[in-house]
Design goal:
CATH superfamily: Ribonuclease H-like superfamily/Ribonuclease H
CATH topology: Nucleotidyltransferase, domain 5
Strand content: 15-25%
CATH class: Alpha Beta
Radius of gyration: 15 Å
Number of domains: 1
Largest sheet: 6 strands, mixed
Distance between the termini: 19 Å
Number of strands: 6
Structural class: alpha/beta
Strand order of the largest sheet: 3-2-1-4-5-6
Order of helices and strands: EEEHEHEHHHE
Shape: globular
Length: 168
Amino acid sequence: MRVVSIDPAIRNTGYAVLEGDFRAPKALAYGTLSLPAKLPQSACLRAIHEHVCSLIREWQPDELAIEGIIYVQSHRTAISMGSARGATVLAAALHDLPIMEYPPTCVKLATVGRGSAGKPQVAFMMRALLQLSETPAPDAADALAIAYSHLVAADPLRAHLFRDRKYI
């Protein structure tokens, strides 16, 4: 299985492409799409959409995995994150890709073993599990963790751990 995963945000969107299964995953690509603060939000949304479309065309994934909506205290942040998520979901839908979302606690549980793990722990585990030569940046690590969680959830013996996942 090949999966593209996205950790959506207006300014720093993490992305990853993994292939294989959770026992032998291979990171094909990962990184962060960083956009300048002076760029209008509409231009950021376009850039996110185009970047996700480009990843889909280049890597021809079977599915797209995305982080589920998280609780944020600022309405402005929630709207901004929702917009970035919408740009991602639209890109996948236009390419007829199944889209699976995972709550952050499930992603952390699948990768670190604790649903309350911090970003440094997630990044460290992604380096170890994927045998990367360096620790990925936080947003890229989150995208790698989302993709890895998707591979874990695809295993019939582990799918029950992801009751909160859903196709969107």
